[in-house]
Amino acid sequence: MVPFRALLPTLALLATADCTFNWTTCDPAQFDSSAVPVSFQCGTLDVPFDYTSHNSSEKLRLKLIKAPAPLKSKGTILFNFGGPGVANRDDFTTLAPTLIPLTGGQFDLMTFDTRGTVDTIPLKCHRDPVQQYRMFFSQKPSNSSETSLGELWARGTADAEACSINAGKSGGVLTTAFVARDLMQVVDALEEDSLLRYYGFSYGTVLGTTTAAMFPDRIDKMILDAVQNVHEYYHAQANFEEWELSDELFSTIFCHCVEAGPELCSLASYNKTPDELEAAAWDLLDAIKHQPVAVGELVVDYAALKGIFAQSLYSQRFWPSITTVIDYLAFGGENAAIPLGTILSGLPAINTTASDLPRLMNGDSALAGIYCGDNQVRTGSFADFLPVAEKLYRTSSVMGDVPMGSYARCQQWRIEPKETYTGDFEVQTRNPVLFVGNTLDGHTPLKSAYNVSSGFEGSVVLEVDGYGHGSSSVPSQCSLKTISAYWVNGTLPESGTRCERSVEPFTSDWWPKVFKDAGVNASWIAE
Ligand SMILES: *[C@@H]1O[C@H](CO)[C@@H](O)[C@H](O)[C@H]1NC(C)=O
Ligand SMILES: *[C@@H]1O[C@H](CO)[C@@H](O)[C@H](O)[C@H]1NC(C)=O
Ligand SMILES: *[C@@H]1O[C@H](CO)[C@@H](O)[C@H](O)[C@H]1NC(C)=O
Ligand SMILES: *[C@@H]1O[C@H](CO)[C@@H](O)[C@H](O)[C@H]1NC(C)=O
Ligand SMILES: *[C@@H]1O[C@H](CO)[C@@H](O)[C@H](O)[C@H]1NC(C)=O
Ligand SMILES: *[C@@H]1O[C@H](CO)[C@@H](O)[C@H](O)[C@H]1NC(C)=O
Ligand SMILES: *[C@@H]1O[C@H](CO)[C@@H](O)[C@H](O)[C@H]1NC(C)=O
User: Fold this and answer.
1) Which sign does the torsion angle of CA 467, 472, 475, 478 carry?
2) Which of 53, 121, 200, 380 makes a 20 to 30 Å CA pair with 177?
3) Residue 506's domain spans which residues?
4) Is 403 a pocket residue for ligand 5 (Cβ < 6 Å)?
């Protein structure tokens, strides 16, 4: 490890780096920094559009955002929040109040909208906007009806064809290998120690493992949190392992509801066991499949209810919404505290508004451009795809049919990427990587963290005993201490260390309480 002191002579160069990125205070209407003790800076960096084309000077302008360290900075940490395809800069502004304490306030935090996302090389597959809408709106769960699976396959055929005809050039430079090179361009332009500090969540762990495998000598520190099985991501027909604990997590919601009692979870007011409540949820799904329910201007159909089930796996913070919706639609909701319409109107799975649409549509085409380009398997026919669907159904009743359209599309993808990482993920990084996984994560089971960690020399796995996707979904004093100690002092926990959660489901407490209890600098804590 390069001692930080050795960097002091280069500090004079920081002025150059500032100039390179052309940092300016972000427009608060776009990126509001009122919840953090610093003001967000926005900047840009020009990088090669196509790293494989050595004779081309075509540039891509990356859009970056930074939260300068509230204390003296030890360097920059780069973030990726997953998808693939999320709007990193938007997610950064939401998560920054948590990320600043987690990194001890001693790092500049930074991210950028990666290739294929938001307005950085957006993948435009259809010239006609109505066709482009269809590409997005047809992504329904494959069990929405008897005919949905076949429709999703045909939609995948049509969209893969349209993307290759209309977006072939841009679609070839969106793979994770390109983003890894972009990350290193940012590191170079920062003019710190030429080493990467990186924190990736969910798909961000695929980006992290890929970057570490391509540039092992340039990794200073890396946390990979909510780990995807990177082998499946690149080499399987679907991310089967991702959904292995989805059903178990879904069942747990009803146990915690009963435990919390009717005051905190109105669904607990019918003297039913957790199993009976879960059975009522599945009966409701089946009834709604055949007879959707109108609530004011909104309609709750199979796809919408499945969307609510799927959302509940992300974080215990969504559990009151899902249990209240089930309470109303299955039991009448007499004891529910919030009107049903209010809950439904806030759920994008049900109330998709015109203002949400560009973001949602872009997220879907970004997912296609990045994941389909990365994935190295193709399936020749619908008949050969059926076993994939069957295996997903066997893996999870909650999630098995939800992402089907995305897999059907990728299995027929026709754009040839310019570069894909094809190595084995047996990696010796300059410094060891810290993997983090929750005990019960319905999107990325803990076993995937152990799977990927086993290929990373010296890496360790930190377990956080809680529910949801990523440790940011489980407020915990222990993970706060462990994660900030890794960033600030390079301290690794013993592998297999298990952190207790500090906040129980169905209470309204969240990270600010944990920060307060841990004595985090009061001026960093937003209420
Ligand atoms: C830096 O940003 C400002 C304001 O956004 C812009 O006017 C200026 O042209 C930029 N300079 C460079 C070198 O890109
Ligand atoms: C770059 O090189 C390739 C072949 O190596 C060639 O097909 C292409 O026309 C060249 N492009 C430019 C801009 O010179
Ligand atoms: C708390 O953070 C602020 C900057 O946000 C800093 O000025 C102050 O010195 C910090 N206080 C302590 C006790 O570290
Ligand atoms: C849907 O959500 C928007 C805000 O995102 C809100 O203005 C609108 O009233 C909601 N629609 C319904 C029917 O509740
Ligand atoms: C989808 O439907 C099939 C056939 O009815 C059923 O076997 C399977 O369990 C269902 N899977 C999901 C995830 O809904
Ligand atoms: C990791 O997962 C891949 C894909 O499922 C599998 O082939 C491999 O054997 C696993 N490795 C370990 C060490 O468990
Ligand atoms: C880093 O180590 C120092 C010295 O042991 C200690 O005082 C400090 O609390 C540690 N910082 C973190 C964030 O763990």
Assistant:
1) positive
2) 380
3) 66-119+173-236+426-524
4) no
